[in-house]
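Record passed on here:
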Amino acid sequence: MGACGRPDRLSPAHPKESQLSRSATGRSPRRTAAIRFAVPAGQLAALAAQPPLDGPGRAPALLVPGYTGSKEDFLSLLPLLAAGGHRTVAIDQRGQYESPGPDSLAAYGVQALATDLLHALDVVGAPSVHVVGHSFGGLVARAAVIRRPERFASLTLLCSGPAAISGLRAQRIRTLEPLLRRGGLAGVLPAMELEWRAARQAGTPSAVVEFLRTRFLTSSAAGLEGMGTALLTEPDRVAELAATGVRVLVAYGEDDDAWPPAVQAAMAARLGAPVEVIAGAAHSPAAEAPAVIAAALLRFFSAVGDGHR
């Protein structure tokens, strides 16, 4: 692992895959159970992977998906972290896939979603947890850590940034927002169908594309709009995070097209955090190079230990 702020380049064992792992078709790995739990806004669905029965008792890991994502984004990562001795739970955020959410846009702000995450800690059932937030999930996880730092052994910001997203992904959100507002999911469906058709033509397995379509159609329109607004308006909270004393890892694909790698590296320098750069990956290392990111996380978890400082 690199020294604070200095990136290590890690190479995946396999070529870059589609945005979701090839197994992300709704089928859970062995020793992984589907669970549901209550939060103030309703119920969240999750996948929980158990470590070997004879393994050491280590702090659990909680995985938080990004915008338009779900717990299935981590299907390939769950068994790898569990095999390393960590009970690992991947959650939907409210409004995502199998976790219905309110119709109010305000229910999908970063602070509201962070409240759900803090409730999820009780389900994980440990005094201290390693939390991994992907993309928008990193902003939510960061807010939870700032509010309750004593509950976290560490925070990994996976392809996440210091503040609001910009560039082409921000432009895409701004393009979809009025369509969502006027027509709900049906209003943006034609644009999404074009993306899924392009994914098939690029070689993404049909089962994965069908899962993406199903997930989109069962997600909350208010959630997509509310989370999109949150992504476009999140303030820079790096100094607040640094002040918590919680250990942070910054990890991203070398070709990340959300927050530019240089922006994420600069954030790590401000935090005094180590950096892992995943060679051959873009914005979804958990799907593109799960073995590589799992190894990086397990090294980091081991270095940090089970306490938050």
Notes: The chain is about 40% helix and 15% strand. The radius of gyration is 18 Å. Residues 1-6, 11-23 have pLDDT under 50 and may be disordered. Residues 183 and 307 are 47 Å apart (CA to CA).
